[in-house]
């Protein structure tokens, strides 16, 4: 059974730090906080733990050097600021980690590194090689070249993807908020912190608001989505305040800090993880209660008869999300039919598909070998 007390046994730890944690209200880098983080992570490395840092702040560092007062609004302007800021940020990390005898390496990733299975595997091999040599990888999305179609989306998602790729034991997301609350604590003074979340239900997802900071891009919604990736990959995840002194140390020692998400018992195989989280979801199908039970309890393939609605514009071979009648995501998988064809055969029995479409490529809409359960 997973408990906070088990966290001290975590060997491989991913720490994600957000822009709001790394910068002052002025937008300039908070050097004291960065130095304390470097010292804390270095001390964990000295204990024999493998540390990976996923860091925001490149755009903010670039803004400071370029003298910009407001965050750039266009993609080229953001990329220009990131290109300037990435070198500055890494130089600071290199200097501060070096003070504690640690070697760091910069690794820049884009969505293409997770969508393509060879690049996904290569990313894993590179990170594992660095860890095995005692290096602390410092990872960021390659903002200087990524565009919307290539972007992973935010560093919360990126950190969960990294934790999944390298089989991390623990993912810590340091934010400008203590964790998940029962309501927005900025608007509702009666809101209380949820110390533990054992199941990410639609009700938990509904608690997530929009971006919580003017300088950051990832609100609680992206953190909940990151938690879904982490727990389904067998990774324990904790959201905590980056302003909490010694937060990482306290979390690893099992202290009651932030919100902890407990992982599923079984880690997904590497191919299944790539299928579930490495590939962009192109559409969504809704299934009835009987189909939901067949998927979850019996491990069945997805058949057209159980589908009640089809959303999105996807093609054969694209990854789709499978949701219940109440909107909960049950699974993801590779569709054997396009959205247009699925709209015609939804609710139909397998033997009726040929008569409706004039062909039947597969009996299953998603074969169980190409399907990953998420609940």
Written description of the protein model:
- The structure is a single chain.
- The protein is of the alpha/beta class and 375 residues long.
- The chain has two domains: 4-271, Acetylglutamate kinase-like (Carbamate kinase, 3-Layer(aba) Sandwich), CATH 3.40.1160.10; 280-373, PUA domain (Archaeosine Trna-guanine Transglycosylase, Chain: A, domain 4).
- Helices cover 37% and strands 18% of the residues.
- The protein is built from 14 helices and 13 strands.
- The strands form two sheets. Strands 3-4-2-1-5-7-8-6 form an eight-stranded mixed beta sheet, sandwiched between helices.
- A hairpin with a 5-residue loop joins strand 11 (319-323) and strand 12.
- The longest helix has 24 residues, at 75-98.
- It is globular.
- Mean pLDDT is 86; it is low at 210-218.
**Beta-strand content bin:** 15-25%
* CATH architectural group of the largest domain: 3-Layer(aba) Sandwich
Poorly predicted ranges? 210-218
* Oligomeric state, counting identical vs distinct chains: single chain
Radius of gyration: 22 Å
Q: Structurally, how many domains make up the residues?
A: 2
Number of helices: 14
CATH topology of the largest domain: Carbamate kinase
Q: What is the average per-residue confidence, as pLDDT, rounded to a whole number?
A: 86
